[in-house]
Amino acid sequence: MSYLSQIEWVYDQLQSLSAETLIKIIDELELDIPNSTYKEITTDVYNKAKSGSPITHKQKRVLVNLIGQPRFYNQY
Fold first, then answer.
1. In sequence order, which residues have a C-beta less than 8 Å from that of residue 47 and are 6 or more positions away?
2. CB 15 within 8 A of CB 68
3. Interval 11-55: pLDDT, tens
4. Are the C-beta atoms of residues 62 and 42 closer than 8 Å to each other?
5. What share of the chain is helix, strand, coil (3-state, %, to 5)?
6. For residues 50 and 20, what is the distance between their CA atoms, to the nearest angstrom?
7. Residue 69 pLDDT class (50, 70, 90 cuts)
8. Nearest one of 76, 45, 51 to 63, comparing CA atoms
9. CA 49 to chain CA mean position, Å
10. In angstroms, rounded to a whole number, what is the distance separating the alpha carbons of residues 33 and 26?
11. Rounded (5°) CA angle 34-57-4
12. Among candidates 37, 33, 35, which has minimal Cα distance to 49?
C-alpha cells in the first residue's frame, strides 16, 4: 500500500466517524483553526457541529481536513 493510499484510507476512516467524535478529536488535540481564506467557514462548521446541529457530508469533510492539517511543533 502506497503512502498516498494510506493517507486516503485514514481520511476515509475519519470521514466515517460521527461529527461529535470529530469534535472530540479536535478539542483533545487542541487544534487551532488556521488563519486562511477558509477560517470563517471552518469556524462556522466547527461551531455548528459543536452545538450538536446536523452537518452535511461536505461540512464533515471540513472537520476531517482540520484534523489532517499539517502542524509544526517546536523541537526545543
1. none
2. no
3. 999 999 999 999 999 999 999 898 888 899 999 999 999 999 999
4. yes
5. 60, 0, 40
6. 7
7. confident
8. 45
9. 11
10. 10
11. 65
12. 33
Best CA proximity match to 42, nearest among 24, 67, 74, 16:
67
Tell me the three cell numbers of residue 33: 483553526
C-alpha cell at 36: 486562511
Task: Identify the residue whose cell numbers are 488535540.
Answer: 29
Sign of CA dihedral 17, 38, 35, 49: negative
pTM of the model: 0.84
Using only the alpha carbons of the chain, give its radius of gyration: 13
